Amino acid sequence: MASSVNPTVRRRRLGQELRRLRELKGMTAEEVAERLLVSQSKISRLENGRRSISQRDVRDLCGVYEVEDHRIVDSLMQMAKDSRQQGWWHSFGDIPYSVYIGLETDAASLRVYDPQVVPGLLQTRQYAEALIAGALPETAPADIDKRVQVRMKRQERISAPDNPLRLWTVLDESALRRAVGNRALMREQLEYLVEQSQLPHVTVQVIPFDMGAHPGLNGQYAILEFPDAADSSVVYIEGVTSDLYLEKANDVQKYSVMYEHLRAQALNVEQSRQFIADIAKEYAR
């Protein structure tokens, strides 16, 4: 599924390297912006990988940082060129969470907590259609179909024969009880969830209602980790109009610790699988 060059990841790596060069020079983002006659926000966006970086941007920044090694400059210029290529998701047009898709495409592992719905990577097509239509009532049928296609394409990471995504999901019982679509659809979805949970690289745990208060009550989030040590882990929090990406080590650590508490409070894998199967049978009545 992933191409040899992932533009989102290239932007992150390039941004991290540009930040490192700035800090080695002892300059603030504001000082660099003044030298280049650009806004400080542009420098920040370039460094956090949220904005495409042109080769001209790299050349100008290397000039400010007085990078004299042409091999370093050439390497950064090539990264800038790669970062402007298009990933598979661009063929679907404007996708609101395209940055996340780029990160997920290159991730080695993904830890997800969702209190409301079954995560996208484990959804059936029918469940995804009903969920998107219900969550976005003003969305045109063609756009709903496009979002569903993207979701199904993302799932290829789970079934990839080589290096499939390592997925760990913790669900609140409410995600299983919320009847998206109809009862037959929900039964099919939960049976599929049980089936997918038996894959060696997929782990599903459930926190039942009677567990009471737990650290996940603040809402959904995901933690992405990457195969290259140079790529820092990312916490992704989905929003209505914009998404939040946390990359500072302290932030990632806090969410990771919270996730460990969720895993500890949830039913174990076998108990969770049986719990889901039992609720699926209830939908058949």
From TrEMBL:
Q: Which CDD domains match?
A: HTH_XRE
Q: Mind telling me which InterPro entries this protein's record contains?
A: Cro/C1-type_HTH, DUF5753, Lambda_DNA-bd_dom_sf
Which PROSITE patterns does the entry mention? HTH_CROC1 (PS50943)
Q: Which GO terms describe its molecular function?
A: DNA binding
Checking Pfam families in the record gives: DUF5753 (PF19054), HTH_31 (PF13560)
Q: Which residues form the HTH cro/C1-type domain?
A: 18-73
Report the protein name in the record: Helix-turn-helix domain-containing protein
Q: What is the scientific name of the source organism?
A: Streptomyces triticiradicis
